[in-house]
Structures are given as structure tokens and as C-alpha cells.
């Protein structure tokens, strides 16, 4: 017994446990960046930011069919079964055994043994309880990982739907621009053939054709990007090819997500909660590894019947036995001690991983808030630029009709108006996409 208990001297303290408070990320009481206006939405659902039935169906179909998410669900189920296995180790185990033996010495002897065997490890130090706690925390972390994966997949689906919707508007604007250039080209061609354009008629015609060719090339590129976007959206649903998404309609603006305080954001983000559960699991595993250095005590009992024939097994008196066993590690070349130190280091690594996840989450929110403010200013200025460029275009059209400006001046004015409209649509797309990113960063989900 003295030799057995001497193994307790191999216990070591948790490495660097006293330094955890010094390694904590300071949680701000408020955000440095703020939203341009206070949102009135009180929901924590990403889909409520847009409230579009077509998009809701698309997200639901994606969550049901996505292969990566289904694999995550299977990993969660595997962990739940592993936790059940771990918890079962704390309870007694009962087995029914039937052994048949035939031995030839001077004579042939048949022996049939039927036994009911019970074994149970007494959890004196709480090692098995720590294993159960570690498995439970790991299971909870997998549940939260699954929720985080669902939220991320929903956000990507929404953002790609927004991109497709806004790109469709850009394509329509470019098609209108192309039609305008073609009309201009036809007018110049007619004037050139009629001899009304003077000596610059051929140069004007070539300039118009150049502008038309460039827009055709740009339009072909945008349409290809759009087809790829449809294919990527289909891939999220496990579909090869393009998804059927007729006429995606997006209203001019969507809601800003409700701005939560940093402490509230932590409570709503599943990735942060998962990282915290992983700390609990790693600490429990470290405790298990430490307690491997302690003696273990187990009980076993057996009720058996031995007869020469199978037919006689259930007759006569039974034999029974009860055995208590104490096992203590005395020499293992430092294997158990090294395992305990490794588990302790893994626990500290999980704590640092949580702090890094928290730091990333805070920076994600701040970056998205700053992006919202910057894009709002850009959108405001681009609206003014579009108004000025359209006024300038009307001015140049009038002067061109009066013969006061060349076709190049008119084409430059049209190009400026078109560029301003495209930039405004692209900024709007970036702003709406960023709002989904901000909602996800603040802990909104599905």
C-alpha cells in the first residue's frame, strides 16, 4: 500500500495556470466604431435583415442539402456516441460467458462453464468523472461548431444571393449603355454616309465603334462571372451546374443588424462559446492525465456453474467469487508523467486559442462597423457624382446636337455617367454584403 500511494508524489501542478489572467484579452465596454444610424430591428436572425421569401427558401434548401454541413452533423453525432461510451465506463459492466473445453489426458474430459461476470472500477479520485466532463464539454463544443457552420453557410448563401442580385442590375445597366452606344454609332454612320459629319466623320465612327467593342467585352466578362456565381450557389446545395433562381429581386436597401455590446456579442457567437467549451474539455482531460498517476481500485464478481454436459449447466450449486484489485503505477519510464504534462500544455493551448478567437471576433466587428461607415460615405458621394455626370451628359448631348462638341466629348460624358452608375451599384453591393458580415460577427444566425 505504501508503494502504491507513493505514485501520488508524481502529481505536478498545471503548467502556467497562474499566468492565465495575465494572458486575457481586455474586453471593451463599447465599440470604437459605431453605425451611422441606430437600427430598429430586434431580431437575431440574419434572414430578417432582408425578409425575402425567395431568399428564405434558398437558405433553407442550402442548409438541408449542403454536403459540408451534413458531414459536420455526422461528426456531432459521432461525438455524442463517444460521450455515451465515456460515461458508460463509470458504471458496472455485466457479461454472460459460456466456455466449452475438451481435454484429452488419460481420458477425454469435457467441461462446460457458464458464468455471469461483473466488473466495476471504483472512481476514487474522480478520474472517470473528469473523463465524462471532458466528453460532455467536447460534445457541447461540437453542437456549437455545428451551429456556427450553419450560420456561416447561411451568411455565404445570403451574400452570394446579394451579389447575384446586384450584378444582375449592373448587367442590365451595361446592356442599356451598350444599346445607347449602338444608337450613337448608327447616328454617326448615317451622318457619315450622308456626308454631314465633315472630315471627322470617319474618326468619329471609329471612336464610337471602339467604345461599343469595349462595352461588349466588359458585358461578356460580367455575364461569365454571373454564370460562375450561379454555379457556386448551386455547389452549396450539392448541385452540379447552375441553380434555377429566376429573377432575384433585392430591394434598394436592407436593415443594419442590431448593434450588441461586446459582452452580448460573446454570449451570441457560437464559435466563442465552442472555444470556451474546448477549454473546459482540455482542463478535464488534463485532470484525467494527472490522475493516471494515482492508484486505481476495481471490483470484480463472478457467479459460475461448471458441468461436463451443457444440459446440466443450470442444475446444482453455483460457485461465486469476489475480487478487489488495487493497481498503482510504479515504473513506466516517465510515460504517464509526460502524458500529464502534455495534457496540461494542451489545456493552456486551448485557453490561448480562445483568447485568439475572442480577439479575432472583436476585430471582425470593429472592421465591419468601420466598413459600414466608409461605404455609407462612398455611397453618398457616388450618388452625387451620378447626378452631376447625368447633368453633364445632358449638357454634352445638347451641345453635340448643336455642333458645338465632338463625338469624343459626348462619348466621354456617357462613359462618365455609366461609370458612376456602376460604381454606385458596386458600392451598394459591398455595403449590403458587409451588413451580413457584421450581423454574423455580432452573433446573428439562423
Automatic annotation (TrEMBL):
Keyword Plastid annotated: no
Gene3D superfamilies linked to this entry: Outer membrane efflux proteins (OEP)
Entries under SUPFAM superfamilies matching the protein: Outer membrane efflux proteins (OEP) (SSF56954)
Protein keywords: Lipoprotein, Membrane, Palmitate, Transmembrane, Transmembrane beta strand
NCBIfam families: outer_NodT
Cellular component GO terms held in the UniProt record: cell outer membrane
A GO molecular-function descriptor: efflux transmembrane transporter activity
InterPro entries cross-referenced by the UniProt entry: MdtP/NodT-like, OMP_efflux
Subcellular location: Cell outer membrane
Source organism of the structure: Pontibacterium sinense
Membrane topology (UniProt): Lipid-anchor
Record protein name field: Efflux transporter outer membrane subunit
Domain of life where this protein originates: Bacteria
Keyword set includes Transmembrane: yes
Major localization class: membrane
Stated family: Belongs to the outer membrane factor (OMF) (TC 1.B.17) family.
Amino acid at each position: 500500500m505504501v508503494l502504491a500511494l507513493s505514485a501520488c508524489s508524481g502529481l505536478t501542478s498545471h503548467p502556467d495556470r497562474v499566468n492565465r489572467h495575465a494572458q486575457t484579452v481586455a474586453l471593451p465596454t463599447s465599440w470604437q466604431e459605431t453605425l451611422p444610424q441606430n437600427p430598429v430591428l430586434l431580431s437575431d436572425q440574419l434572414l430578417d435583415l432582408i425578409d425575402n421569401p425567395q431568399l428564405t427558401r434558398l437558405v433553407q434548401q442550402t442548409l438541408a442539402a449542403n454536403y459540408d454541413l451534413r458531414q459536420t452533423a455526422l461528426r456531432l453525432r459521432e461525438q455524442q456516441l463517444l460521450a455515451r461510451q465515456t460515461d458508460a465506463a463509470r458504471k458496472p459492466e455485466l457479461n454472460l460467458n459460456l466456455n466449452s473445453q475438451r481435454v484429452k489426458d488419460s481420458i477425454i474430459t469435457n467441461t462446460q462453464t457458464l458464468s455471469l461476470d461483473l466488473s466495476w472500477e471504483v472512481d476514487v479520485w474522480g478520474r472517470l468523472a473528469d473523463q465524462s466532463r471532458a466528453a460532455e464539454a467536447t460534445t457541447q463544443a461540437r453542437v456549437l461548431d455545428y451551429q456556427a457552420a450553419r450560420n456561416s453557410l447561411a451568411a455565404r448563401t445570403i451574400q452570394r444571393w446579394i451579389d447575384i442580385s446586384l450584378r444582375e442590375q449592373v448587367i442590365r445597366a451595361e446592356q442599356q449603355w451598350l444599346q445607347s452606344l449602338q444608337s450613337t454609332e448608327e447616328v454617326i454612320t448615317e451622318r457619315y454616309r450622308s456626308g454631314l459629319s465633315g472630315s471627322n466623320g470617319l474618326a468619329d465612327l471609329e471612336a464610337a465603334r471602339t467604345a461599343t467593342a469595349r462595352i461588349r467585352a466588359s458585358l461578356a466578362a460580367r455575364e461569365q462571372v454571373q454564370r460562375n456565381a450561379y454555379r457556386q450557389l448551386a455547389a452549396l446545395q450539392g448541385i452540379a451546374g447552375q441553380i434555377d433562381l429566376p429573377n432575384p429581386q433585392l430591394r434598394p436597401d436592407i436593415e443594419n443588424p442590431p448593434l450588441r455590446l461586446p459582452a452580448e456579442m460573446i454570449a451570441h457567437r457560437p464559435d466563442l462559446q465552442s472555444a470556451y467549451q474546448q477549454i473546459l474539455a482540455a482542463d478535464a482531460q488534463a485532470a484525467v492525465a494527472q490522475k493516471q498517476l494515482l492508484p486505481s481500485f476495481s471490483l470484480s464478481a463472478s457467479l459460475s456453474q461448471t458441468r461436463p454436459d451443457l444440459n446440466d449447466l443450470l442444475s446444482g450449486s453455483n460457485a461465486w467469487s469476489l475480487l478487489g484489485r488495487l493497481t498503482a503505477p510504479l515504473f513506466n519510464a516517465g510515460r504517464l508523467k509526460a502524458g500529464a504534462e502534455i495534457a496540461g500544455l494542451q489545456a493552456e493551448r486551448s485557453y490561448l486559442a480562445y483568447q485568439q478567437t475572442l480577439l479575432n471576433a472583436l476585430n471582425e466587428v470593429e472592421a465591419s462597423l468601420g466598413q459600414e461607415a466608409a461605404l455609407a460615405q462612398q455611397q453618398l458621394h457616388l450618388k452625387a457624382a451620378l447626378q452631376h455626370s447625368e447633368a453633364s451628359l445632358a449638357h454634352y448631348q445638347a451641345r453635340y446636337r448643336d455642333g458645338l462638341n465632338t463625338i469624343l466629348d459626348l462619348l466621354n460624358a456617357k462613359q462618365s455617367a455609366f461609370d458612376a452608375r456602376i460604381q454606385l451599384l458596386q458600392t451598394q453591393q459591398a455595403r449590403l454584403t458587409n451588413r451580413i458580415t457584421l450581423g454574423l460577427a455580432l452573433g446573428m444566425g439562423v
